[in-house]
Amino acid sequence: MAHSERYGPGETASQFDPGDFILAHRHNPMAWLITFAQKVRFGGLDAVYAHWSHCALIVDEGGALVEAETTGVRRNPISRYTQDTYHLVRLGSEFSAEGRKRAVDYSNAQVGQGFGYLAAFGAMIFLLTGVPLRLMRRKHRICSGLVVRALQQGGLLKGADPDLMLPADLAKIYGVRWDEEKGVAKDSPPHEAGDAATRP
C-alpha cells in the first residue's frame, strides 16, 4: 500500500527506496502559475491538493532525485528540499523491484533534456478550461510528466495522461493533502496505487 510521509524544515527521511517520489512547493514564477491553475481546477474538498507545485523521482538509496526544472532535467540531492516542507510518497510493495528499476532507468535517461514549457502551458490550459491541449516538444519534460512517465514505465498509473497531469493530480491520486489553516502537510493513510489514475 502506498502512503506519504511529511518532512518539515530541517527534517529529511533516513531511508529511501528508488522509484518513490516527492511532492514539494517551489517558490518561483513557474510554480506560482502552476499553483494558480491548480487552485482554479481543484476546488472544494480537492483544494487540499493544489498546494503542491513540484514533484521528483527518487533514483538511489541516498535520496538522489531526477527532476524537471525550468533549466532542464537534472539529478539533484534531496538535501535541497530540507529548508522547506515536502512529502515523500512511498509506493510500497505494490511497486515491484523490476518496476522500480525501469522507472529509475527511465528517469536517469532523461537527465540533460530540456524543460517542457509548451507542455506546462498545455496542462495549465487544460486545468483552467477543461480543453485537452497537448503542446509538446520532443525531449522536453515537465516535472509531473517526467514522474508519471517513469511510474508508467514501471507498470503504475496506466490510465493517466502524462501530458495533462500536474503535481496536484499526483497528490490527489495518492492522498497527499495540505492543511492551509495549520500550514502543514498531513501524512496520508495507506493508499492503493495500481490503477488509481483511472478512478473518479
Description:
It is a single chain. By secondary structure, the chain is of the alpha+beta class. It has a single domain (2-180), classed as endopeptidase domain like (from Nostoc punctiforme) (endopeptidase fold (from Nostoc punctiforme), Alpha-Beta Complex). It is built from five helices and eleven strands. It has helices at 29-41, 97-110, 117-129, 143-153, 167-173; strands spanning 2-7, 21-24, 54-58, 65-69, 72-76, 86-90, 114-115, 140-141, 177-179, 184-186, 188-191. A hairpin with a 6-residue loop joins β3 and β4 (65-69). It starts with a strand and ends in a 9-residue tail after the last strand. Residues 180-187 and 193-200 have low confidence and may be disordered.
Layout of strands and helices, then pairs:
Blueprint: E1 2-7, E2 21-24, H1 29-41, E3 54-58, E4 65-69, E5 72-76, E6 86-90, H2 97-110, E7 114-115, H3 117-129, E8 140-141, H4 143-153, H5 167-173, E9 177-179, E10 184-186, E11 188-191
